[in-house]
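Lab notebook, entry 257. We have the chain sequence and a SMILES string for adenosine-5'-triphosphate, and the next step in the workflow is to get a structural model of the bound complex before anyone spends time on docking refinements. Request logged below.

Task: model protein plus adenosine-5'-triphosphate, output structure tokens.
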Amino acid sequence: MQKDEEEMAVLSVDGLRKSYGSFLALDGVAFEMYVGQFVALLGPNGAGKSTLLQLLTGLFAPDAGTIRILGLNIRTHLTEGLAKLGVVFQQPTLDLELTVEANLRYHADLHGLPRSLARKRIEELLKRFDLIDRRHDRARTLSGGNRRRVELARSLLHEPSLLLMDEATVGLDPASRKDILNRILQMRKDGKLGVLWTTHLVDEVEEADRVIVLNRGRVLFQGTPAELRREGQAETIAEAFLKLTGYSQAVLSVPGS
Ligand SMILES: Nc1ncnc2c1ncn2[C@@H]1O[C@H](COP(=O)(O)OP(=O)(O)OP(=O)(O)O)[C@@H](O)[C@H]1O
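Result returned:
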């Protein structure tokens, strides 16, 4: 990667606004993040996290504001911007009738990877995510945690600079949840990828480089987990989050639920 690419924000969002009819789902959202960072986007249900991710993936256009991926404005450079993006969606997206390997090969073809390069990367990623023994198994036979690992491997095949993970641990058992989170946290050591991790689970943001608190379409806070605790004059992230948002304990979901 070029020096100026390393210093450039991998994702830069400014003045983002999106309404559904008269309902304002995102209201002037702005933040930046860099490669090597794990950024947690924390917000209760309905905060606007999925809407934000739909805009970041070009699914639909914002009413106002700009999104830049490595400096590329996706309004004018959508294809180039999306080529730098890996996504793990909240809803499972594997073809359950295909084998693990075929799911990955299909994605590699979509990204136009030459077959020999695709074979090499698939092999590397299956090893890295401890899936090599399952390569010939149909996705249907995999546990929820393993399916998520396949989706994660798939999202990295084209070597993106930015990985978006939308509530990636929802529905997983506690051990699989921890496994996925730890794998992502380890990846930041490579310094090649920025990860935007959306969640409504406060315990998933403890080790983030930065936390963005989104509530009712607005950014209430952005900074480190320690700064979040300081801002909320609280000992825990959960307490700080509740103070900032004014919610009661009930809004904090039980992990694994
Ligand atoms: N297509 C739509 N039409 C109308 N309102 C919508 C639509 N999609 C989302 N909303 C509303 O916009 C707000 C933000 O929704 P969004 O799904 O982005 O939030 P979220 O933080 O991802 O929540 P969740 O964790 O529940 O998915 C919610 O109040 C939701 O009801």
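Notes for the group: Residues 93-159 form one domain. Worth checking against the assay data. Residues 115-128 form the longest helix (14 residues).
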